[in-house]
Amino acid sequence: MSELPQYRFCPQCAQPLAWITALEDGGEKQRLRCAACGFTHWNNPTPVLAAVVECTDREGRLLLARNAAWSGDMFALITGFMEAGESPQEGIAREVKEETNLDVSAVSLIGVYDFQRLNQVIIAFHVQAHGQVQLSPELVEYRLFAPGEVICWPGGTGLALAQWLSERGHEVTLRDWTSRT
User: I need a labelling partner for 149 at 20 to 30 A (CA). Which of 76, 93, 142, 157 fits?
Assistant: First the structure.
């Protein structure tokens, strides 16, 4: 396989992992496996939660934020990983609170989106929230947008935002941010 393995050693016996083809339910499949103990690294996609945050105390404006690790001026949905023992709905309410300090009063599913570039499955929600915004250290800036002002990127969370906007009768503008100089 051409991709670089995330894992180099078996977590069970510490022997090196190798690309080994084996028969699985769907036929032969090449995966990182341990020749010594038989461990298989399945490399399943990670569930990521995303929120279209509608600020009910700010005329229904949408809160988008810029991650500290990003260059440029791209603002995006609030996202984060689910934790063990919580439902996706609980997880997105927790993420919105942790990252923005806003209190979530309603959560509804927008959809589930494939994001193979990062080996993720995005579970996107519309949340209604209120309160005083205080960003976590991983976010450096936020902006409030009227729904008609938002530009979506044609992948991942951008597709979720585009679907939410479209379902509410807003014209959707898509822009491929990766092609910007």
Answer: 93
